[in-house]
Design brief:
The structure holds 2 protein chains of 2 kinds.
Chain A: E1 2-7, H1 10-16, E2 20-25, H2 30-41, E3 51-54, E4 57-59, E5 70-74
Parallel strand pairs in A: 1-5
Antiparallel strand pairs in A: 1-2, 3-4, 3-5
Chain B: E1 4-7, H1 13-19, E2 27-34, E3 38-39, E4 42-51, H2 53-70, E5 73-81, E6 83-86, E7 90-98, H3 101-118, E8 121-127, E9 132-134
Parallel strand pairs in B: 1-5
Antiparallel strand pairs in B: 2-7, 3-4, 4-6, 4-8, 5-7, 8-9
Helix pairs in contact in B: 2-3
Classes of the chains: A alpha+beta, B alpha+beta.
Chain lengths: ~80, ~150
């Protein structure tokens, strides 16, 4: 099991009702963690429309997570 | 100030442009993105921008670095607002300098296009009827059945 810090932005922040949380999970990749959170909190965005960042750098959905990582799921962006 | 910045207060284009001043430059191209009153046929009343600041600043600096590597630039800078903006407000500013105008036009276009596609910044539109929508985040069953086309 890993202990991770998750930060939420934009639509995910609103759907989670939090800006961040610490959680313990059996998920070992961003893809697995997103699926766990999506089912638990009813996130409307499917996994294929969300990117992941770990410790402030973009990572692949299948990148290994490590204990203590800070992870952010990035909804489709709309700057400019 | 870093060449790429996020700002929770109004962007001052004159200050940003002055910082690019360079007697070697024969061209300065700037782009301003403004909050407009319609999107996809809906009357817009205001906009909220939210950013994942640490990654947006890193990615913004990377985009400026790419532009400097690809085009013959002398300087490049950009700024993006966060927070609640009103119609007509300046949302994003890009400025580049070069010896000649060709590189400056191309680089300015490159930077704003990449910024829109890559920066972890989100936009929530507020409509006249009180509804709000996170742009590009609609899913099937919402708002007529699909994501809106990119602006």
């Amino acid at each position: 099991m890993l202990t991770l810090d998750v930060q939420y932005f934009a639509i995910l922040r609103e759907q989670r009702g939090l800006t961040q949380e610490r959680l313990t999970t059996a998920a070992s990749t961003p893809a697995a963690l997103y699926e766990e959170l999506r089912q638990r909190h009813g996130f409307t965005l499917p996994a294929e429309r969300v990117r992941a960042a770990v410790n402030d750098a973009f990572v692949a959905a299948t990148a290994p997570l490590r204990d203590g990582d800070r992870i952010v799921f990035i909804p489709p962006v709309a700057g400019g | 100030m870093a060449a790429f910045s996020l700002s929770s207060t109004p962007i001052d284009p004159a200050t940003l442009q002055r910082a690019l001043g360079d007697v070697r430059a024969g061209a300065c191209v700037t782009f301003e993105g403004w909050v407009r009153n319609r999107n996809d046929g809906h009357p817009v009343q205001s906009l909220e921008y939210e950013a994942y600041a640490a990654l947006a600043e890193r990615e913004g600096a990377r985009i400026l670095g790419e532009a400097r590597a690809r085009f013959a630039l002398l300087g490049a800078a950009a700024a993006h607002r966060v927070g609640h903006l009103q119609l007509g407000d300046l949302a994003v500013w890009v400025g580049v300098t070069a010896e000649h105008r060709g590189a400056a036009f191309e680089a300015c276009r490159y930077i704003i296009d990449e910024a829109k596609a890559r920066l972890p910044i989100w936009k929530k539109e507020h409509y006249a009827d009180g509804a709000t929508v996170w742009i590009n985040c609609a899913t099937r069953g919402e708002h007529g059945g699909g994501a809106r086309p990119p602006p």
